[in-house]
Amino acid sequence: MEKFFKLKEHNTDVKTEIVAGITTFMAMAYILIVNPNILSASGMDKGAVFTATAISAALATLVMAFLANYPVALASGMGLNAFFAFNIAAKYSWQIALTAVFIEGIIFILLSVVNFREAIVNAVPKNLKYAVTVGIGLFIAFIGFQNAGIIVDNPSTLISLGDLTSITIILSLIGLVLTIYMVHKNVKGALLWGILITYAIGIVCQLTGLYKVDPDAGMYSLIPSAIISLPPSLSPIFMKFDFASSFALGFEFIVIMFSFLFVDIFDTVGTLIGVANKANLLDKDGKLPKVKEALLSDAIGTVAGACLGTSTVTSYVESAAGVAEGGRTGLTSLVTGILLLVALIFSPILTIIPSFATAPALIIVGLFMMTSITQIDFSDYTEAFPAFLTLIMMPLAYSIADGIMFGMLSWVILKLLTGKAKKIPAIMYVIALLFILKILL
């Protein structure tokens, strides 16, 4: 173990790495509950998605451990799963969405091997990169408020407040306050604990009659029939690609794939650099050693995840929690990956947790992603306005792809109008042209 993971070289030991791996698992395990809730909204089998989420996360994390020797865990990405369910699957089908993720993952593998990724990353303006993160955060938070019932449809104003006296909304608000308090107190796994505590309070309310089971109102029994069991079958979603329908979309399908790829690339790069910096893994030039292996691990996870039946698998920023506990090598990831597999037997509990209990986690993840807004340069309006359009259009248009489209097109147009054409990278012209074709076709 010492020879393979080079623990002494990284100034760590087995005990520290194990504790770090457990900490990372606690910080990210909420995705095992949240992802099935989100993807099931597109018609996918909730139990099958739970199994796919756990296995794909474990597989990708183990690949990261052995291929890159980094203390970075991976799982279905927040934001990307919302884009999958509420944009692509809602408009087309979840089979087409899975096909797009599968092909995007293969493209990501090729880009990682030939190092073309750097060209894309360097071409897109920093402000737009930050704006995409912020916009996804707003989008996720909006979904969280909807899942809680705090925001509902309104034929007159499009949206409005729900009935704040509803027991499920009250439970969500209690969970939100408890979770943000635990985050403030730096409780390890605060999001996971917030979900579980909110769920437990819901069970108490059901037992006392405050929470009445009413399937027509979307209120089901919160009490599981068992604690552990074999994980749900993957068969309803395993390898369920629809290449014929996807390719029939033509250029529109290319835009879908590009949107997945764009967010995946920047989400992965940003997470890897941030976690590696905190773990002191960057070299003297500020570069990330074994970046190709790390990106390849991420891409392999995405392809495997699509085959299993889940949305894009990406590096998790929650890995920083394990790094803060001293994790420095792939042994941390190995421990996290094993725990993700162990979690499979607890499916009776983890798959029954309702959306009112997971909504607080979505809202707080949105808050975490909003912090990138401080990095946006608002002094130059040719930079600020495209960033503003990017982040505001995602929740308003209910589409990550449309937010990216508005931001990139406006950035290119404003640079051309203000005589700054030389500052526009060639690849941005290509991207702008693709989006124009999307609008016209």
Question: Can you lay out the helices and strands and say which pair or pack?
Answer:
Layout lengths: L1 H4 L8 H15 L2 H10 L5 H23 L5 E3 L3 H12 L2 H21 L2 H7 L2 H23 L2 E4 L3 E4 L5 H18 L5 H18 L35 H6 L2 H28 L12 H18 L4 E3 L3 H6 L5 H13 L4 H4 L4 H16 L10 H17 L2 H18 L8 H15 L1
Antiparallel strand pairs: 1-4, 2-3
Helix pairs in contact: 2-15, 3-4, 3-5, 4-13, 4-15, 5-6, 6-12, 6-13, 8-17, 8-18, 8-19, 9-10, 9-17, 10-17, 18-19, 19-20
Q: pLDDT average, as an integer?
A: 90
Helix segment count?
A: 20
Low-confidence sequence ranges = none
What level of helicity do the residues show?
Answer: 55-70%
Silhouette: globular
The largest sheet has its strands arranged as 1-4
Protein described:
This protein has 441 residues and is mostly helical. It has 20 helices and four strands. A hairpin with a 3-residue loop joins β2 (151-154) and β3 (158-161). α6 (94-114) packs across α12 and α8 (126-148) runs parallel beside α18 (381-397). 55% of the residues are buried.
